[in-house]
Design goal:
The structure holds two protein chains of two kinds. Chain A has eleven helices and twelve strands. By secondary structure, chain A is α/β, with parallel strands linked by helices. In chain B, helix 3 packs across helix 5. Classes of the chains: A alpha/beta, B mainly alpha. The A-B interface holds A 67, 69, 89, 92-93, 96-97, 99-101, 103-105, 108-115, 122-123, 126-127, 140, 150-156, 158-159, 169, 172, 176 and B 12, 19-27, 203-205, 207-215, 218, 222-223, 226-227, 229.
Chain lengths: 356, 343
């Protein structure tokens, strides 16, 4: 897999724990937040890997580990076959040109005290690429490319709408012509009409520059719109991963089924005909994740084995108790479940129950 | 607002391809617009400008009155029993002092010392405080612990004790005053900057800068510092009067500027011997000190309010309340045609 030229990024068994410190004079570690727990994935060149999951499932932490913004606890990150795990800032510098990020909140991801020209010109300044008039020209080209008026070069972020601000963020990420752009919920703070514009812009740019995206969102429809492969995260782990059509067409993990059934449907007839799977209880604390399958306490299909044996992420037809570790984002439909949902099975009928 | 958003856009469109013309209003322009509407702050600013102008023009007044700042005039400046003469007597505009020198000229020269000490110490202290606060807040960890504890110990230090000790060892001098005041001023600024830095460094745009590959010093000075300039300016404006008072205190205690060089502090110290016979000798230097510190404090308050966008609404609300009251008062006694609504 490592030698595969088609693979831009490969992540092996990535683990990120955040220590929980006790208050008081001596701050000893009393626990750990299991933000990302043993995730392996691949991002293919020119493709989009969508990452779905509810708040606190570790999507953003995973993204920041891949971007090299926070050190990882264990595991490895490879970019074009090169190990980039926990590099120093200096060693990371050339890589910054290849991997860029677009942030969730267009209001806090732009410095309110700096002019738009300076914000978009920052990548050029930091990497000593262009100065003076040349930098200005390049910035204005970028602004034009993302659909901003280049005359607004000297304005402040506060003078733009949310969608325009996100375009500024896109222009900044695009400045160094990266190979990978990590989009951390890039549209979840925007109005629906604006969302479509930004998503279309991202799709156009992917075509034009051959970009790869790691696209994070909690909106299933948005992910479906942009992704080639989709991975579903729950409490720091990937529950299911498959090419888009397979995941949305024949979901196999009970959590994915529940998630899909909870998404609002535009067609009222379809919505009425659909069986809703209503989960009970809350997401367990990532400080003390449940043993076995992390979803078993809320799963309508849970059996005793689910509380003891952790299911592995395996292709269809392979037992989840077998040793397997195929990275997500490939062409196989992988599920981490002892009792995957069969096609046509009515999960809602299984009823919901709560195990304390 | 004189130019509406639509006009603004239209103007930009007319100017067409000339790109640089569309320029957003910066934080500073907005602050200045709000400050200009604050009558108290503007009065304070005018007063400060007058004081600075008088201090700069002090030699001009010397040539006008022919009274040097350190020259005694026993014939015209003292009455028969050797007491100071009052204001507007024998060409002494504010009277003379205990040794027959011109009080007005001495106050002007005192202003030079006071403003010099106030501005220089505040500038140095701001630079120091900002650097130390930024580093403590941004790096955190051990660096923060060391710098923050050092800051706290400086704030806890009894400055008068140190001043007396230093003056005793090295002899009082302007250098020691400048060093002393700076040393006791930076800590307060550093503490505020540290706190602000702690909150700003968690913002997403700092992470964005890091993801672009920016180093810690670029982030501190290009991304965090612009967000701190407002609060630092406000504190600096409030530290100038504090430094002026500090200098006067030291000089009053004979630990600062030494006679015959004039300083508001040592003028007041000498004046205490004459307060029963010559009121002007105490009142005028004290007034100079009061007006200066008050003006700086009011300006500082005004800048702080102008920085805070919420005050705009507050001022507007207060104004409309006043207008309503006025209207109510007018309409109550006589049912007059309401001209007040036009305002």
């Amino acid at each position: 897999m490592a030698g595969d030229d088609n693979v831009l990024v490969r992540v092996d068994n990535l683990v990120k724990y955040f220590p929980v410190k006790a208050g008081g004079f001596i701050r000893r570690t009393v626990g750990q937040v299991h933000a990302v727990d043993d995730v392996s994935l691949v991002i293919e060149r020119g493709k989009t890997l969508g990452l779905v999951g509810e708040t606190g499932s570790g999507k953003s932490t995973l993204a920041r580990c891949v971007a090299g913004l926070i050190p990882v606890t264990s595991g490895k990150v490879f970019f074009e076959g090169r190990d980039i795990t926990n590099l120093s800032r200096r060693a990371m510098r050339p890589l910054r040109r290849e991997v860029q990020m677009i942030f969730q909140d267009p209001y806090s991801s732009l410095n309110p005290r700096r002019r738009v020209g300076a914000i978009i010109g920052d990548p050029f300044a930091i990497h000593n690429i262009a100065t003076g008039a040349e930098r200005k020209r390049k910035v204005q080209e970028l602004m034009e490319r993302v659909g901003l008026n280049p005359e607004h070069y000297n304005r402040f972020p506060a003078e733009f709408s949310g969608g325009q601000r996100q375009r500024i963020g896109v222009a900044r990420a695009l400045a160094l012509r990266p190979k990978l752009i990590i989009c951390d919920e890039p549209v979840s703070a925007l109005d629906v009409s604006i969302q479509a514009q930004v998503l279309n812009l991202l799709a156009d740019l992917q075509q034009e520059f051959g970009l790869s995206y790691l696209f994070i969102a909690h909106d299933l429809e948005v992910v479906r719109h942009v992704s080639d492969k989709v991975a579903v995260m729950y409490l720091g782990r990937v529950g299911e991963s498959a090419p888009k059509e397979a995941l949305y067409g024949t979901p196999r993990h009970p959590y994915t089924v529940a998630l899909l059934s909870a998404a609002p449907a535009a067609d009222p007839d379809a919505a009425a005909a659909r069986q809703r799977v209503i989960l009970t209880g809350d997401v367990p604390s990532p400080i003390d994740p449940p043993p076995g399958c992390r979803f078993h306490r809320r799963c309508p299909k849970a059996q005793p084995i689910c509380a003891t044996e952790e299911p592995q992420l395996v292709p269809e037809g392979v037992s989840a108790t077998s040793e397997a570790n195929e990275p997500v984002g490939g062409n196989n439909h992988l599920t981490a479940c002892h009792f995957p949902v069969a096609v046509g099975e009515n999960l809602a009928a299984a009823g919901t129950r709560e195990l304390a | 607002m004189s130019v509406t958003e639509v006009e603004f856009e239209a103007r930009g469109a007319q100017e067409g391809q000339t790109v640089a013309n569309v320029e957003g209003r910066s934080q500073w322009q907005l602050t200045w617009r709000r400050l200009r509407r604050d009558k108290v702050a503007m009065t304070a600013l005018v007063v400060i400008v007058i004081i600075v102008a008088l201090a700069i023009a002090a030699p001009l007044f010397v040539s006008l009155t022919h009274h040097g700042p350190n020259v005694a005039f026993p014939d015209t400046g003292e009455d028969a029993v050797g007491n100071p003469v009052g204001p507007m007597t024998n060409g002494f505009w504010l009277g003379s002092d205990g040794t027959g020198r011109d009080l007005f000229i001495r106050i002007l020269y005192g202003a030079r010392i006071s403003l010099f000490v106030g501005v220089v110490t505040t500038m140095v202290a701001s630079a120091l405080g900002v650097s130390i606060g930024l580093m403590a807040g941004y790096f955190g960890g051990l660096i923060d612990t060391l710098l923050a504890r050092f800051t706290d110990s400086v704030l806890a230090f009894p400055y008068i004790v140190l001043a007396i000790a230093l003056a005793a060892v090295f002899g009082p001098s302007l250098t020691i005053i400048l060093g002393m005041i700076t040393f006791f001023s930076w800590a307060g600024i550093a503490r505020i900057v540290r706190g602000q830095t702690l909150s700003i460094k968690e913002k997403e745009y700092i992470e964005a800068a890091r993801s672009l590959g920016a180093g810690p010093f670029r982030i501190m000075f290009f991304d965090i510092l612009p967000n701190l300039l407002g609060p630092v300016l406000v504190i600096a404006t409030l530290y100038i009067p504090a430094a002026v008072v500090f200098e006067s205190t030291l000089s009053f205690l004979a630990l600062g500027i030494q006679p015959p060089t004039a300083s508001w502090g040592n003028i007041l110290a000498e004046a205490t011997n004459f307060y029963q016979t010559s009121w002007w000798y105490v009142v005028f230097p004290a007034l100079a000190l009061l007006i200066t510190t008050l003006a700086f404090n009011l300006l500082g308050d005004g800048i702080r309010d102008a920085m805070d966008p919420r005050t705009e609404r507050l001022i507007a609300a207060r104004r409309s309340l006043r207008r309503k009251k006025r209207k109510a008062a007018k309409s109550a006694p006589v049912a007059s045609p309401s001209t007040s609504t036009l305002s």
